[in-house]
Amino acid sequence: MNSADEKAAPSGPAKVRSDDPKHALGLAQYLRTIGYDAWIEDTNGNAIDEKALQMAIKSRHEDAPSS
Fold it and tell me: Which of 8, 18, 25, 30 stands 20 to 30 A from 41 (CA)?
């Protein structure tokens, strides 16, 4: 494949909006892998601390009753 056949990866900002924290994290991570500068915002437009969000999801999962 020569350079004329190659397509440039997308780039630029991408905000993630979702009511599902796991979905938002996964989508933000995916968008970064394909070249976007992605972040998660709350309803007020403030950036979310993704590490804290991951810890909260993990904690909630561990606290969930097993079936």
Answer: 8
Place of tokens 């995916």: 30
More confident residue, 44 or 8: 44
Q: How far, CA to CA in Å, does 61 sit from each of 30, 35, 39, 50, 55?
A: 22, 30, 23, 16, 10
- The conformational region for residue 66 under phi > 0 = left, psi -120 to 50 = alpha, else beta, is beta
Instruction: Give the predicted TM-score (pTM) of the model.
Output: 0.67
Mean of the per-residue pLDDT values of the chain? 80
The predicted structure's pLDDT at residue 5: 44
Would you put residue 61 in left (φ > 0), alpha (ψ -120 to 50) or beta? Answer: alpha
